[in-house]
Amino acid sequence: MIKAILIFNNHGKPRLSKFYEHYSEDTEQQIIRETFHLVSKRDENVCNFLEGGLLIGGSDNKLIYRHYATLYFVFCVDSSESELGILDLIQVFVETLDKCFENVCELDLIFHVDKVHNILAEMVMGGMVLETNMNEIITQIDAQNKMEKSETFIFQSPRQDR
Amino acid sequence: MPAVSKGDGMRGLAVFISDIRNCKSKEAEIKRINKELANIRSKFKGDKALDGYSKKKYVCKLLFIFLLGHDIDFGHMEAVNLLSSNKYTEKQIGYLFISVLVNSNSDLIRLINNAIKNDLSSRNPTFMNLALHCIANVGSREMAEAFAAEVPRILVAGDTMDSVKQSAALCLLRLYRTSPDLVPMGEWTARVVHLLNDQHLGVVTAATSLIITLAQKNPDDFKTSVSLAVARLSRIVTSASTDLQDYTYYFVAAPWLSVKLLRLLQCYPPPEDAAIRGRLTECLETILNKAQEPPKSKKVQHSNAKNAVLFEAISLIIHHDSEPTLLVRACNQLGQFLQHRETNLRYLALESMCTLASSEFSHEAVKTHIETVINALKTERDVSVRQRAVDLLYAMCDRSNAKQIVAEMLSYLETADYSIREEIVLKVAILAEKYAVDYTWYVDTILNLIRIAGDYVSEEVWYRVIQIVINRDDVQGYAAKTVFEALQAPACHENLVKVGGYILGEFGNLIAGDPRSSPLIQFDLLHSKFHLCSVPTRALLLSAYIKFINLFPEVKGTIQEVLRSDSQLRNADVELQQRAVEYLRLSCIASTDILATVLEEMPPFPERESSILAKLKRKKGSGTVSDIEENRKERNTNVNGGVNHSSANTNAKVTSSSSTDLLGLGSNTAINSTPPPGPSTAASLLVDVFSETSPTGPLGAPSAPVSDDNFSRFVCKNNGVLYENQLLQIGLKSEFRQNLGRMYVFYGNKTSTQFLNFSASVVCQDALRAQLNVHAKPADPTIDGGAQLQQILNIECVSDFVEAPVLNIQFRYGGTLQNIAVKLPVTLNKFFQPTEMTSQDFFQRWKQLSAPQQEVQKIFKAKHSMDTEVTKAKIIGFGVALLDGVDPNPSNFVGAGVIHTKTTQVGCLLRLEPNTQAQMYRLTLRTSRDSVSQRLCDLLSDQF
């Protein structure tokens, strides 16, 4: 089971956090910091797996991560997941983001938090892998966007938008 | 076309985020956020109804603020309102807010549930998916209560869309994880299994995840999934990579699904049906073959996906542990990976080999890679990988390579990362003990360990070396000589001083013949370390000194001088002061004979599981370590178990004889021949040394915590289920007459697999051993799947007792040894014979038993409803006669009976006065024995 999915940048600023187990808000923030601390001190081209920090359950859990340009994508999983499988899943996630945002960059994640959550929700649900087929995921996202578009006419004009 | 075009987001949100990003300081950021929170709050509270767009915008802002680590304590109601909107965008953002921000314990869940219910029944697949996602993400018990029946229906309904089925499968999985009791197994289970045949691979993947979890808990219900999974896997493995279209990932056919199917198969033993088994073997061979083919792509994704499947296939081969050729092929494949340039693969290969090392078919094959693994330990740049190398060395260690491996681990320890030192220390200590052919090597190794990594040597390790030295007289002289030499170093670790002090105190005489280590030199050496040590070590050294007085009368004067000094006799530490005073006194007044008796050499320690091993298991969880241990234990049964077993009795005798009252030491344990290292740790050491279970207890296996869940249910009845877990059910039927009883214990195997090496024994601990005799007839060593085994226990009550005997059960299920300990409900009241008597008799006897210690009374609150009939049944079940019309108050209960023990009979009267208004009871017991009154009162008062 996937316990948490975290994205943060090279400075440890969280860009997405999704926990599939319940922690208090404080603990969640501590887990993000602890994870950043563990992952960021590792060299490039060492392996992509390491034992989880104490807060998220220690050696029962593994952190599986990838580092893309300015962002770390970290999945915290228990022993029931295949390490390489999760590594590929991160790749699918990133490729999907890339398709949806056209050359995704950190700013996209910042300004479209809701979209990123929606894309993630198409892939992972309640800590389990829901869908791995990128075309299927994108079809779903497209359908959502269409629905959104069809509803936009109801929106007020965003004039005094603050 | 990009799915999200840039710049079509919400402008207000973008502006806010930019503001935050432009903040120069944390304070400015907080200020900006507070301003925004106030703004949103006023918007939500304002009279003007917000439109959907604004609500969405504000919720997005709140999400962003939350991500930055700020508490959000409002907006929940708005989110709930968004759920009931029939516009997709509003509903979606509502669900998003809830899945990110709402905790499972929130009061809001009930409100949310209502909206979810509507969406689930909407037949709009998008809405249904949103609702299912929300259930899965929150996954609270309340949600399980509301939807556990509905979700399976959606999952197996014929007209459900594929995407909804996928979500429903995982949603059900989540609910089952949080509240398994609320998810009813039923006719849907069979249909879930058939989802493995579904056209849509996404549905199959989700269903496989669900079935894996369900099958782990209910293997029988999902047995049929094995053949379906094999068939599906075979189709994927043999398909051309284009057949599965979108589910082909970088030229690998459906890797995730393959991994899941292979995991599912690991829930079961190898298939019995030869055809299925053959097909599975073919699949596994194909996967192994593919690993040798040239890669279809240079991309790392291709090799990752391919190897994900390969590693899972290897796990399955190891799990089945039945096909030697496959096992050896797997091992060779992993061997190739050990030298692969991809760090990830080296890591995983080390990890998988660890489990492979425990299979008897491949243990030798694994051992051939020892040089590579040692090399990895020395050269890997990544600590995660080095740690796996340590694990693997530990797993592959046996008698033939122990010296090499221990030496390598020791040399690695000098430079090892701090985070893994303690674990390495434990591992070295265990290996050194387990594979020691000559114990001089063992002693050298442990002393080296203390020298290199003294800080990481836990108490268990140095206790253990002392236990072993004490138990083996062939190594005592060598140990004394070695510690003496090691102590010569100008700076030595305190742990070494402890070991040195203890060993010289016991066996210093063995090297005293050599003028270089004469008694006085030994003493001076130890005492030179004294002032640098902590209190517990000093306490230990003081005990060593008094032992010296016994061993070497010639240094008596010197030592008395030391003990007499103010820094000892007036030490601020109570423990040290007391020891100094008592030892000094002892050395002055006791004759040589008494001294020799009191300070006699330690008797051998009872042999049992190494506490170091227990510690390592605690550290690592019950995972691989114990498995490897168990497997190994079988292979070299008791190679080193040859130390003479002395029962705890000898120890007890020594203890009591050494603290004879003539010395006026009372209960002080300091004089006893084990020097406890200090007040705080004394208890744990004593427990460690003396906590030997009786000789029938399970030796050499991790002891299980004693379960007493159902214990109190049996106080007033004799039959029922005593214990139940996923594997085993224990039922009881018992009958008692006078001071004798017979108990039929039924062990039901709930699984489909045979239990092996089954054994069940009853242990009476401490005082109980003399009070209660329990004779257990030996039980069959195997229980077939689904079968029941009966064991008869004969019980005799010798005198009244308080504690309950413990039933220890051990068996092997699959590869692992199971240990269960349950308190047996043999309670004092079982030996009651009811006595009828008249009101007059009753009160006459009641008055006779009026001494204060004969009466025990307890006033307590009712735990159950105060039903007269139930109470009567309980009192009769307790064993006494219920006397009607004795008490003037008709609502009171009065009973009488006689407890029969072999040595005596104890008459017993009881009175229970309920107060329904206050929901309280008053229970009074009068018997001729105070211990009996107290015990009966405790037992009975717990029942109401």
Automatic annotation (TrEMBL), chain A:
User: Cellular component terms, GO, for this chain's entry?
Assistant: AP-3 adaptor complex; cytoplasmic vesicle membrane; Golgi apparatus
For this protein, the record's PROSITE patterns field holds: CLAT_ADAPTOR_S
Q: What is its main location?
A: membrane
Q: Which UniProt keywords apply?
A: Cytoplasmic vesicle, Golgi apparatus, Membrane, Protein transport, Transport
What kind of membrane protein is this, topologically? Peripheral membrane protein
Q: Which domain of life is it from?
A: Eukaryota
| Pfam family membership, one | Clat_adaptor_s
Ranges for domain AP complex mu/sigma subunit come to 1-147
Enumerate the Gene3D superfamilies for this protein: 3.30.450.60
Q: Name one GO biological process term.
A: intracellular protein transport
CDD domains named among the record's database cross-references? AP3_sigma (cd14834)
Q: In which compartments does the protein localize?
A: Cytoplasmic vesicle membrane; Golgi apparatus
Task: Give the similarity note.
Answer: Belongs to the adaptor complexes small subunit family.
Alphabetized PANTHER family for the sequence: ADAPTOR COMPLEXES SMALL SUBUNIT FAMILY
> What the protein does?
Part of the AP-3 complex, an adaptor-related complex which is not clathrin-associated. The complex is associated with the Golgi region as well as more peripheral structures. It facilitates the budding of vesicles from the Golgi membrane and may be directly involved in trafficking to lysosomes. In concert with the BLOC-1 complex, AP-3 is required to target cargos into vesicles assembled at cell bodies for delivery into neurites and nerve terminals.
Q: What is this protein called?
A: AP complex subunit sigma
Species the sequence originates in: Chanos chanos (Milkfish)
TrEMBL record, chain B:
Q: Which InterPro entries match?
A: Adaptor_Complx_Large_Subunit, AP2_complex_asu, ARM-like, ARM-type_fold, Clathrin/coatomer_adapt-like_N, Clathrin_a-adaptin_app_sub_C, Clathrin_a/b/g-adaptin_app_Ig, Clathrin_app_Ig-like_sf
Where do the segments described as Disordered lie? Answer: 623-659
Q: Where in the cell is it found?
A: Cell membrane; Membrane, Coated pit
Give UniProt keywords alphabetically: Cell membrane, Coated pit, Endocytosis, Membrane, Protein transport, Transport
Topological category with respect to the lipid bilayer = Peripheral membrane protein
Give me the residues that bind a 1,2-diacyl-sn-glycero-3-phospho-(1D-myo-inositol-3,4,5-trisphosphate), please: R11, G12, K43, Y53, K57, Y58, V59, C60, K61
Enumerate composition-biased segments (Polar residues): 637-654
Q: Which GO terms describe its molecular function?
A: clathrin adaptor activity
A GO BP term, please?
clathrin-dependent endocytosis
Q: Source organism's superkingdom? A: Eukaryota
Residues in Clathrin adaptor alpha/beta/gamma-adaptin appendage Ig-like subdomain domain copies: 712-825
Q: Function, please? A: Component of the adaptor protein complex 2 (AP-2). Adaptor protein complexes function in protein transport via transport vesicles in different membrane traffic pathways. Adaptor protein complexes are vesicle coat components and appear to be involved in cargo selection and vesicle formation. AP-2 is involved in clathrin-dependent endocytosis in which cargo proteins are incorporated into vesicles surrounded by clathrin (clathrin-coated vesicles, CCVs) which are destined for fusion with the early endosome.
Subunit and partners: Adaptor protein complex 2 (AP-2) is a heterotetramer composed of two large adaptins (alpha-type subunit AP2A1 or AP2A2 and beta-type subunit AP2B1), a medium adaptin (mu-type subunit AP2M1) and a small adaptin (sigma-type subunit AP2S1).
Member of which family? Belongs to the adaptor complexes large subunit family.
- Record's protein name: AP-2 complex subunit alpha
Q: Which organism is it from?
A: Chanos chanos (Milkfish)
